[in-house]
Amino acid sequence: MSFYFTHMHNTYDYLFKIILIGDSGVGKTCLMKRYTENVFCENLAATIGVDFKIKTITLGSKKAKLQLWDTAGQERFKSIVSNYYRGADGVFVVFDMCNKESFKHIELWIEEFLMRNSKESSEIFLLGNKMDKIEDITITDEEVHKFCREHGIKKDNFIKVSAKTDLLVEDAFLIMTKNMISRFGDKKINRVKKSALNSNITRGGCC
After folding, report:
1. What is the CATH number of the domain that holds 35?
2. Burial 126-136 (b: 16+ CB within 10 A, else e)
3. Are 95 and 26 contacting, i.e. CB atoms less than 8 angstroms apart?
4. Which H/E stretch holds residue 121?
5. Residue 142 falls within a domain, yes or no?
6. Which tens digits make up the pLDDT trace of 13-57?
7. Would residue 207 count as lying in a domain?
């Protein structure tokens, strides 16, 4: 029984909660499906409330379990969705590189997020999606970098992606995970795994 308990919880070293927020239609669901399933669906229905997926990745000798929360962007779901912001270790604020309004709204999304979290306890990334539509892009790097400076967000935490072509999608999640391990690693270590391991050592390593 003890071996089974330890075996169950030895599958990861870190546990992180990541949420995706932003206007409806910017591609949050497409990004999460691309990252977790490596698929792209052109005409996905709008997310109702929240959707949840888990992905475990390996970084060197360590494994990080990512709890991924895709949130609805419609105004009518905000009061429900915002309840899921609490305790997030990382947030991807997603906007459409071809839609100025979606970029203007990221300040409001961040404000909403910081009502339940803090910059000290969370990694904030900006994802400019739909980079595959090169001719339709209306937002410049300079605009985003200016926003980052004004809001205390690291310039490197802005990544231009495309869920359709898989441009830098996996890289974005990987970079965020590395940042979270660097900042919060000791606090987010798998305590159950550590406890079970110590218990086995105390008993002589067998049962």
Report:
1. 3.40.50.300
2. bbbbbbbeeee
3. yes
4. none
5. yes
6. 999 999 999 999 999 999 999 999 999 987 665 564 578 899 999
7. no
